[in-house]
Amino acid sequence: MVYGVAIFQTPMIAFHQALWLVRKDLALHLRSKNVLALVFIFSLLVVLVFNFAFGPTPLPAEDQGRLTASVLWTAFSFAGIITLTRSIEIDRAYGGLDAVRLTGTTPSLIYLSKVVSNVIWLTLIQAAITPVALLFLEALDQVSWLSLLKLIAVLAMGTIGFCAVGVILATMSVRAGGESLLTVILFPLIFPVIMAGAKCTVSILTTSTIGNRFWISLLVTYSLVFLSCSYLLFEFVIEG
Amino acid sequence: MSKFNLITIVVAFLTFTAVFNITRQPDIIVPGERIETTVSDILGNDTQYDETEIQQIVTQAIQILNDGQSRRLKYLISAYFVVWLILMLYIFHLSQKQEQLQTELDLLNNQLQPDKAKEDRKGI
Amino acid sequence: MPVATALYVVTPIALFAALYSVFGYAEYEETMLEVQKIFYFHVSSAFTAFTAFAVTCICSIAYLVKRCVKYDLVAAKSAELGLVFCTIVLTTGPIWARSSWNTWWNWEPRLTSTLILCLTYVGYFILRTSVSTEQKERFASVFGIVAFLNVPIVYYSVKIWQTGGLHPPTTTRSHLAESMKHAWLVSWLALTLIYASLLKLNIGFAWAQYRLNKLQARTYSN
Lengths: 240, 124, 222
Known about the structure:
The complex is a heterotrimer.
Chain A: H1 2-7, H2 11-31, H3 33-54, H4 61-92, H5 96-102, H6 107-136, H7 145-173, H8 178-207, H9 213-238
Helix pairs in contact in A: 2-6, 3-4, 3-6, 4-6, 4-7, 4-8, 6-7, 6-9, 7-8, 7-9, 8-9
Chain B: H1 3-23, H2 32-43, H3 51-123
Chain C: H1 2-25, H2 38-66, H3 69-101, H4 109-130, H5 133-162, H6 178-221
Helix pairs in contact in C: 1-6, 2-3, 2-5, 2-6, 3-4, 3-5, 3-6, 4-5
């Protein structure tokens, strides 16, 4: 009977299931507010470390833009690792993932809902950290509200690509090696996202425009390719 | 292939390439037009010259080109040496695995033989 | 095993043919003269590493579909050989860069994407060793597929990323003379045959090790 539900699932049912799964994941995230504080403070500390390592005097505009972009993307990569590991761990605790699978939801839907919830969560964290980071890096004056919105949009697109690969790799590595294993296997795959995101960030911070269109199309292509690939492969990862 | 044989081959190869790299000075194979251009670089715009000066200048040019070539050859040989070294190290690693496999197999055989003998005895 | 014997016989012949064509047949390039000959084995190794990782991806897909352990073994051994060839690329690359452009590392697209590829498949092996045996094959197969999909994306993005500033010119294959093209093809063939022979050897060992492990488990549990 369970398989019957899965096979004859209409798109509407699938959509509702995905929505409930996203709600569940976000509720689980919100339940542990200490982790939210942890990720926020961690990102802030990364920004401060870079600031102290680089020195107090601000650079000319373009170099300051490049420094800001590298700081932001480093902080968010590490924050993303913590968030992904945490989100998979809390689902696995008390058999939550098994319970969800027993409802007959397809694994691919579980994957998509995890990606959506992690993207929402990470984008919220990024929206909170970015103005603070820009303040510390003395880049807030050069950025208008529109540029800030564009920046957060680029960060969100990068986060989609990050989570598309990150969720499936985190599911594989959480039980085995935790965050260190996830860092080692995720970062080489994520370099194009970081390249594209950092380039877009630099051009937004220095010229308030997106710059070379190639990087945006790279982010979109990357997200599409890995979302579809992981969508098909996720069932092999959680079947055990 | 035993470990000793492999080590001998690797060491012989490494010694050979090292000695080759350090000692051998190959003959110059640079084409004539390069010698001409190097000579005219050294001469500059000066058109007044005599025989001994020309000899000195040509010797100098050949020395420069020779040094350039020996530097390039050293890099070329280092690169090929690295390729061979990596492949040989990998084959060495494979031979280690093969020996380990052989030891485990012998161990298992020794374990199985007494059992086999016991079974044969039981059959009678 | 006639195929295996033929392979082991043809490989040294191809290797000698490659060495002869590189040193005795290909002509010298104008600016770099002798040092340019590193290019034949450097680029061929990069292509062979790419082939090895493609074989890993295909075998990973086959494993997920058929669930036959031998596919997973082939995938793992092919990835190992791919790493060996990546190491060759990453060591000869800086030597060539140093001799031609006087810098050890200049973020050339091919070298940078090979470095990322190398790191990715080192992660593949770390994943294989960290995860327990039942899940190892599944997880490694999924990672093998995902990692290989990343390869063209990384290559094109590094290419565009690198041309955004002042960099020394990188060699392009389109400027090759005919004799150099032939020598390059022969050296590529030789390296691919070396890869195939090593893979055949490796699969033999891995399969023997697997059967031995099963036998040991059965024997010691009785």
